[in-house]
Structure prediction request, 220 residues.
Amino acid sequence: MKFNEVCLKEPENGWGYSPNDRREMHEFIPLECKRLLEVGCGEGTFGRKLIEQRGIEVWGAELFEEPAKIAEKYFHKVVIGDFEKTIHDLPKKYFDAVVFNDALEHLVDIYQVIRGLKNILADEGRVICSIPNFRYYKNIFQIIFKKDFQYASHGILDYTHLRFFTKKSIFRTFQECGYEIEKIKGLHGPNKWSIFKSILFFFLGDMKYVQYGCSAVIKK
Prediction:
């Protein structure tokens, strides 16, 4: 995996997405999930797999009209526009899961959105996210040794990212919004291990992952 490649390859279309079913995130979807909202659904590749494999009723929220129209062919419904506004048009206490696959970091006011999700989540509903890890070792090395903070068209330093996260700040963000992280897992660690990496990751284990996947529930 090349540096600054967070699961997705360089965007293949005009709205900045590359189709990807994000199968590594399927394990975070509870077996009892019947209704799911995917925020930033793009063309709907992730949701389509859940529909085909598990029969889940999938809704989408998408900023751009062109990919949303593609997702509409498969999803129960897709709301188009800025999610920080369209969230208010969604049914109350309806969704068993709301999924953000590399979407949360694009929002202006994540605290308002995460708190607002409580209005549309069903009882025992979950917020499920994949979030780029700012402390990924290649990212940190670029800052320390190259003395550079270079944005790119995709990846951890995507120029459209408005927020950056570490494992610790993921916990803190959800706790401050009234949630508890029930599961968190590092995603896309290195395939090859050198002696240096083995020593580094023994002491700084959070730096080996490009992303973190997590699931959060509302505090009782």
Remarks:
- The chain is about 25% helix and 25% strand.
- Residues 1-9 have pLDDT under 50 and may be disordered.
- The chain has one domain: 23-218.
- The two ends are 40 Å apart (CA to CA).
